[in-house]
Input
Amino acid sequence: MAELPRYRPLGVSIGSMPSVNFVQTGQAEARVYDQIGNSLDAISDFVYKRAVAEAEVAAVKYGAEIAPSAAELEAASKSGVTIDPDLPDGFTIFDQKARKTAVDVIQTNMEIAARNEINQLTIDAKDSDMSADEFQLNLNAIIDGYSTSLSQIDPVASVNLQAAIAPVANSKLTTHANAMADKAEKQQKVAVTFGVDGIINNIPDIIAAGNKVSQEGNQAPSITTVDDVLNAERNRIAVLSYGVESSEFLQAKLKAFDEAVIGAKSDYINNWVRGSGEDDVTALNRLGQVLENDVADENVRQLIGALSLEERKKVIDDGFAVLAEEDKFADAQDKREEERRKEIISDIKVEIAEAVIAGDQEARMAAIEKLKVIDDDEYAKQLEAIAGGYDDPDTIEALNSLTASSQLTEDDIVEALRDGVLTTETSKTYYTSLKSQRDAKNNKAMSIVRNYFGVPEGNLLASSGMAVSPEDRKAVVAAELELQEAVTIDPDFDRMAWAKQYIKDLKDEVPRSDGQDMRFDRIRQNKLNALIDDPAITVEDADEIASLLTQKLDDDIIDGDEYLELLAFIMRKKLK
Amino acid sequence: MAPIIAAVSQAGAAIGTAAAGMSGAQALGLAASGASSISQMMGNRSEARGLAAQATMARLQAKTESLKYKAQGVQVLDNILRTQAAIVARAGNGGVDPFSGSANRLLQYASAKGATELYTVQDNEIITMRGGEMQAQQYMQQAKSVMKAGMIGGIAKFGTAAVNYGLIGGLEPSMGYGVGQVDPRLFKAAGLG
Output
């Protein structure tokens, strides 16, 4: 059998599957999303940081606001009130920051308040001399008070606060303790100085007491000399000076003591030399006793006997100084007596002048008699003046000149009287002028009048360049006499107003007698107004005025002459 | 799925807390953070999708390889038939009974050898299919993990941002009610206060 045809395969096979990487594609897509996410994260991060920064700023502000001030903390501390601020206690950034800020501010404010309290305490301590221990207790109380209060809020801040205040407190404590120590030292020094000065001041008493004799029972009497006591006192100075711990102080005080001893001994001896009036022995005689070392007084003799050569020399020098002082005193006393004598003579002269003015010869003679034992020459002059004489025109002119220039003296009048060129009657005018010149108010008023007449005040001879007519001088004398008469109407009247009116009347050519009457009436009117002092009362109310004047007379406000003078004035006015 | 819902719920609560009393700028920042989280999740989703596609690809490749083995099995069967036909034909031509004696033993030998080869091919097909499937499952598992990681990472990221923003804090409103709350005066005006 022939071989049959059969199907022959072409060798077709299944193809290989192509490899596709989907993972890479997904990863690439994921990277894109990742980049987008990163950008968004950057935005969010920026916003977050910004928001955190803003929240922190707000928290700082809020924390500072809610923290109590230093003044509040100080007031609370002083009143014992515990401050418990409501601080944020959450866990947010804002709360944490606000709390931290508030705590920081409270710590700072507490430090300020504590420092203030410490400063105040320092001042008080200084003023009250507070002891260092008490000062320390008070300082600790302040520090503990604030730190304990703060520890309830923040223990760490409390420790920081203590660390900040403690050095200040320590510094204050050290300063105060040193100041107290210095003060105590000064007080000690003052006390020692006071005690030592007391010893030194007591030296004169020790010396004056002299030696002391004491006896106990049947034992022999023992003598404690002045020098023994002084030596004991000197030793006491050394003992007291230990408190000061200064050799310079001790040396200075011992030196002062020694000098005081010499001075006191010298004073005691020289007091004896000066004498106390117990005997008639003169200072010179006593100094002689000292020089010869033969003194009668036992105390003084013992003192002199115990003196060193140097001390003795000083005592004698002082003794001579005492003698010189005594002489000087005597001279001064003589001078004082002479001045007193002159004052008495002057008073008697015033008395004589007043007697002449009053025309009282008896009083004048009595006054002159007083001069007899004080001043013989003046007595003789006054007697001669009584003899009297005539009014010499030249003398009158000379006296007018002196009166007009306010240069008149008693001697000028007395001399004219003694020479017989002035009558006693005329002399009254000049005595009156003389009396007026003694009044300062009168002199001021007269200066106005003198100026008007061109009469200079003072020595006319010295101002000879000015021509003054005798008429002007007479006018000045007349004005002076009117002024003196006006004084008798009212001693307190206004002199200046009178002088101005006087000049005005002269200028208006008012007759002299009329002018004088008007001026006197004006003085009386013023006096009456001052006494009555009631504008409702007029001159028509004469009876009422008389009644009031009587009352013033009864009250001794005016005397009888003034009463009659004013009454007559009222009557005259009413009649007019 | 339940844990994810819980996480989302918690994140929402955090956002709600953070949003209360938040300024406009802060809200913008938080929104940017949310968008970033979503972007992150979408990136992971893309990666997961790539992995899932790669898994399908792996299955396809395994199937292709198994078909090759299937064709090889057919060739083995053809070869058996061809060999047996040649033996029968040669035996018949030589006058030998092909179904007895040595010819028959040759036929049996050819069948045995061919069967052995066929079984080997079939085993290879199964191995290829199983290997591809395993590869695909690996890819799918990876895709799920990436997806889950993206979801959790995004939520965690946004939650963290929300908490951070919430922790900035600030002053309480002076009227006594917070952002998002109704003014108490309105309740009073409505007769409810």
